[in-house]
Design a protein that fits this description.
Elements (H helix, E strand, L loop, with lengths): L1 H19 L19 H8 L4 H31 L6 H7 L2 H4 L2 H11 L6 H8 L13 H28 L4 H9 L4 H12 L1 H16 L3 H6 L11 H10 L4 H32 L1
Helix pairs in contact: 1-14, 3-8, 3-11, 6-8, 8-11, 11-14, 13-14
């Protein structure tokens, strides 16, 4: 396991860090004549006029928080629903998994067509309800483009939240709810005072893992908007890709990727600490 970690995880990380400390571009990539520049790539990414990296970090946070909030709320509601036994429960629970099972690129294309200004089902639906007077250019305006990719990511992530929370709900003994009923607690009181505290470990895991998965999203955004318009949906992941494989500034792309890695590393350490604390309590 240690050898695997070194080869598959350790080497790429170390190589990327070294790459970010050099000036590697399309001219000197093969010749190996790149020079060591230290932290210059990081400084330029943060201090250049109208820093795209700073904007991409802000966009990533908005995208992540907006997605996780609604994914959790809807996923939790569905988990409470499908935790009960009723006719067709298994069928409908299985149907909700379709969005999680679809390749993300396919889901991105679906929502790109749905939000299209011409023939998009979203515009047709809103116009038919007289919510808007004419079709909107959802993916061509900064604010609406961010809303569109958040909606798409919410749809994809709901089943993940639902399944993990259902697993947590199944660990609560039925006797606990019976005791609450005998004590006269209503459903809201039972949910707030019993259900949520008893599945706190599952909730924390869902939120932490959801943050990691959402913060590093690339393919969905690239398919739908490619970070546009005017960098309004540019995430750290898409910006790192653009620097490396469109502008061929490999060292700056590596630096942007390392910043993303550092943020996720902090979240990962927090998650490990949380898990260890829960294990100590148990």
């Amino acid at each position: 396991a240690f050898i695997y970690m070194i080869l598959v995880l350790g080497y790429p990380i170390v190589y990327n860090i070294i790459l970010s400390l050099k000036d590697v571009n399309v001219k000197n990539l093969k010749s190996g004549t790149s020079v060591f520049v230290g932290l210059q790539n990081y400084i330029e990414l943060f201090t250049s006029g109208n820093s795209i990296l700073t904007k991409s970090i802000a966009n990533t946070l908005i995208f992540t928080v907006g997605s996780i909030f609604f994914q959790f709320i809807i996923g939790f509601a569905l988990a409470l629903l499908f935790n009960k036994k009723f006719a067709g429960c298994s069928f409908f629970r299985g149907m909700t998994m379709i969005s999680w099972l679809l390749p993300v690129t396919v889901a991105g294309l679906l929502f790109k067509f749905m939000f299209a200004s011409s023939g998009g089902i979203i515009n047709q639906f809103l116009v038919s309800l007289h919510i808007i007077d004419q079709p909107m250019e959802w993916l061509l305006h900064p604010k609406s483009a961010m809303v569109a990719i958040i909606v798409a990511n919410i749809w994809i992530g709901i089943p993940f939240n639902m399944m993990l929370l259902i697993t947590g709900l199944t660990t609560i003994p039925a006797e606990v709810y019976e005791s609450c009923s005998l004590d006269g607690a209503n459903k809201i009181q039972t949910l707030v005072m019993v259900t949520i505290p008893m599945i706190k470990p599952a909730i924390m895991s869902v939120l932490t893992l959801g943050f990691v998965y959402t913060f590093k999203v690339f393919d969905l955004v690239w398919v739908m908007t490619k970070g546009g318009p005017i960098n309004s949906t540019e995430l750290v992941s898409t910006y790192a890709y653009r620097l490396s494989f469109e502008e061929f500034q490999f060292s700056k792309g590596a630096a942007a990727a390392n910043i993303l890695f550092l943020i996720l590393l902090v979240v990962g350490v927090f998650y490990i600490k949380l898990i260890n604390e829960e294990e100590e309590i148990m």
